[in-house]
Write a structure and sequence with these properties.
The chain has a five-stranded parallel beta sheet with strand order 3-2-4-1-5, with helices on both faces. α3 crosses α4. It is elongated. β11 and β12 form a beta hairpin. Helix content is 29%, strand content 23%. The protein has two domains: 116 residues, Cobalt-precorrin-4 Transmethylase, domain 1; 93 residues, Tetrapyrrole methylase, C-terminal domain (Methyltransferase, Cobalt-precorrin-4 Transmethylase, Domain 2, 2-Layer Sandwich), CATH 3.30.950. By secondary structure, the protein is α/β, with parallel strands linked by helices. Pathway: Cofactor biosynthesis; adenosylcobalamin biosynthesis. Belongs to the precorrin methyltransferase family. It is an enzyme of class 2 (transferase).
């Protein structure tokens, strides 16, 4: 009897992994922390098998700890009796609500068996959506950029939670970066938008990311060399 933390991917139901799909279809109950993950899970499970958990959007640590503990108290007995899934967009171990639940279960219900099923993350799928190639040997840093933050330093960055794109853009341009944005990439919920114009993203949206690359960065990607009349 196991609790499975299942990554659903960025939001399109057909980007759920085969393993994730199989476990969802056989789970006795599937817990969802929000409406977006719930809508993806419903592609594979009946609505009466979905259980909701309350994870308040607050920075009040006491309220958060109380919510995590209450959620663990709901999930733990079910996971002792049968197979239970907790679904989350993206990957369960990458900036995910599941991490709070896992740590709380380990602290108060350590007998519960846990297994994590990785999911496609928008922070890797961005390269396909934005037409970016990160070649072998290149460095890429992951940064949070909520509320207009403009992290700088690395030659290449993927920024997530870009909730104030115009402010973030201003700081990055001043620091010498070229920037491209993607909103709701590979998501069925809402309109996907890809742009290098931050004014198109004036409306705040948690599911916005950016790729920033230094303007003076010299990239020499290896290629196969060919000669006319044959190849080497």
């Amino acid at each position: 009897m196991t609790l499975y933390g299942i990554g659903l991917g960025p939001g399109e139901a057909d980007l759920v992994t085969v393993r994730g799909k199989q476990l969802l279809e056989r789970a006795d109950i599937v817990y969802s922390p929000g409406r977006l993950s719930r809508s993806v899970a419903l592609e594979y499970v009946d609505e009466d098998a979905i259980g909701d958990l309350d994870f308040p959007m607050t920075k009040d640590e006491e309220k958060l700890r109380r919510a995590w503990k209450e959620a663990a108290e709901v999930v733990a007995p079910k996971a002792r009796e049968g197979d239970v899934a907790f679904v989350t967009l993206g990957d369960p171990n990458v900036y995910s609500t599941f991490g709070h639940l896992r740590r709380t279960l380990e602290a108060f219900h350590s007998d519960v068996d846990l297994e994590i099923v990785p999911g496609v993350s928008a922070m890797t799928a961005f390269a396909t959506a934005l037409g970016v190639e990160i070649e072998a040997g290149a460095g890429l840093s992951l940064r949070e950029a909520a509320n207009g933050a403009s992290p700088t330093g690395p030659d290449r960055m993927i920024l997530f939670k870009v909730t104030d794109a115009p402010a973030t853009h201003e700081g990055l341009i001043e620091a010498g970066y070229d920037v491209r944005y993607g909103r709701r990439l590979f998501m069925e919920q809402g309109e996907t938008l890809i742009t290098d114009d931050p004014t198109e993203l004036a409306e705040r949206d948690y599911y916005t990311l950016a790729y920033a690359e230094r303007q003076d960065l010299e990239i020499e990607s290896p290629t196969a060399a060919f000669q006319r009349g044959g190849h080497q």
